[in-house]
Specification:
Layout (H helix, E strand, L loop, with lengths): L3 E2 L7 E2 L29 H11 L1 H8 L11 H12 L5 H6 L1 H20 L17 H9 L7 H8 L8 H16 L5 H6 L1 H36 L4 H17 L3 H18 L6 H9 L8 H10 L4 H9 L4 E5 L14 E5 H7 L4 H7 L3 H17 L9 H12 L9 H79 L1
Helix pairs in contact: 1-2, 3-5, 3-15, 7-8, 8-14, 10-11, 10-13, 10-14, 11-12, 12-13, 18-19, 18-20
Bound molecules: zinc ion (ZN).
Zinc ion (ZN) binds next to strand 4 and helix 16.
Amino acid sequence: MNLTISKANPNSITFNRRLALKHTEVKYLPKLNCACCGRDLITAPEAAEFYKKITKPLKLMMEKGFFKPWQSSTRVWNVLQSFSLNFPDMNLDTILDVKENQKALKIALVDDLNELIANGKREFKNERYFKYEITDEYADLLRRSRTHMKSASAVMRRLLPLKETFEGHKKAVFEQLEIYARKYPRKRLQEIINLDEVYRFHQQKDWLQRAQTREKLDFHFDNILLLVKKQNPQAVEFFEDLKLEAVDLLELEHDSAARIPKMKKMYEKALKEHGCEKLIPKVNKELEQVPISFITVDSFLVFAKNHKFSDGQIIMSLISPYTSSVEHIIPISEGGKDSIENIIVLCRECNRNRSSVPYTEFIQYHPMMSYHTQRQINQIGDYILNGTFDADKFLPIKVSKTLHNYTHGKISPDYSDYCKKQIRRSERKIKKRDTVMKEVKQAKVDALRQKADLEREIKGLDKKMNDISHLTQELNKDNDSDNNFINQMKKQIKK
Ligand SMILES: [Zn+2]
């Protein structure tokens, strides 16, 4: 990550290519599962790749290397991304003319810089550095590239690979949008949800569902009141107030899994205080049937229309809960380290649900967390072992220990399997090395034997050479005597 300050003008901040923060890299591992709910995670690069396909400025920003959101998700990036998704038909200048937007970008920049300071990456202590200025090139780029949202059918086609990921009301929204894309192939998503016929249809269904939910709520809470009335008539007033508190809890508690357990706890305490312990099982039964979610495909589409959602916002609200995010096991506020031993990967939704609830409490509402965390640690371990993830090979053990200590053993991943795998791997390596060593040794022996053979051969050849030279000498001698003989003969002939 580097928001560099250009040297020519220290007051201006240049958006530049970013470098990855090593400790957050774990969230870019492919095919991880959320350590809490276990769903398949979409990595930031996958999500960015998708956004790139539907909005033009984002595509350009990424292609030109101004931002690599998969390497770092800073607030500035998030703000600019939401600008281009929220105002698909404006250019950046127009967007930034709006005071609110200027403020948002400025706040994001200050936050980013503060984080840099907190991480000791850079020293930005002077207020004046917090003024922002977008480089000319960047502004020009955005000026030239207005966003062109695609037609609904094109967008839905792009979304198709993610279809299996969606769950609950998001799945229903996706399916509904698919139907509309087929019905109005040339219109954009925003245009479709603004159509009178579409809006009215969902609004009416939404009203009806709200009324039914309300009725169901009242039915179960009234049953509880009746039970209390029989047992202790004086407590009725108190339980009427408690009902209002419970309804508040249902609407305000953002962790949906915590809603019923928290209500149960509340009622258990109240029943005990009013001498109605006997009712606890019956009341719990009623509470378990209380509807906990108010979001439906209809309420989503009505909300999106009323809040003037752009196509990008519709899509982002579908995708973003499934993208991977790093979660500090021990929160930074409690002195947790911002390092990889203190990190697990959660989907954004679980991350948001946890916020800063201690794990010892959080796991009560998410009993599968232990299992899913184990699975994620195994996955990360495998990535380390096969060399995909370049990290400390003791990492899974360290993370397991952090979890064990922090949750007092409530989440205590077993890393013996990882250790065994690592030992097996090391043994395999040693074995491989041994066989190579053996082969080398054998080759050495072979070479020596060959050398000896060759030496023997050379000796033989030398002997042969000797014999030959001996023979030559003999022959020469013979030759000499022959010459002498010839000379003597010649002399005699002359005489
Ligand atoms: Zn999750």
